[in-house]
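Hi C.,

You asked whether I'd gotten around to modeling the 156-residue construct. I have! Everything is below, sequence then structure, no commentary in between.
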Amino acid sequence: MSDEAKDELNASMITGEPGSHPVGTGVGGVGGAVAGAAIGSMAGPLGTLIGGAIGAVAGGGAGHASAEAINPTHEEAYWRAEHANASYIKEGYDFDRDLHPAYAVGYANRPHYAADARFEDHEQDLKRSWEEVKGDSRLTWEEARLASRDAWNRVS
């Protein structure tokens, strides 16, 4: 395709796809994340974290950010069903109180990092996020990090 044809289609310089606006999609994703976090704040720190992830999906619109972002509702349902199969789950832990915040730290923070980012490279940031959103969870970071890492890896 000629450069003139690409200009007429408003094609992305990266993908060549018509109507692609990677910068606008990224800005929309960030704006949506901020708005979602603000709305989620009404439900407390965990709501802020998850609201930011939902906002990033909505703000990204139909662009690439949406295709790569996570669906927090789907992730929560997945972990609610699968958490009992994890080797690190101890008897007496409650999903909503103890484990959901740990999984959410992994899946809701993952979209904020490069596609090739490793959990271990950002663990200090994730630990800070855990401290902010853990609420009434009885897990220490050492216990929560295993669930967070599983959720991070699942949406990677």
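If it helps when you're writing up: Residues 11 and 65 are 17 Å apart (CA to CA).

Thanks,
B.
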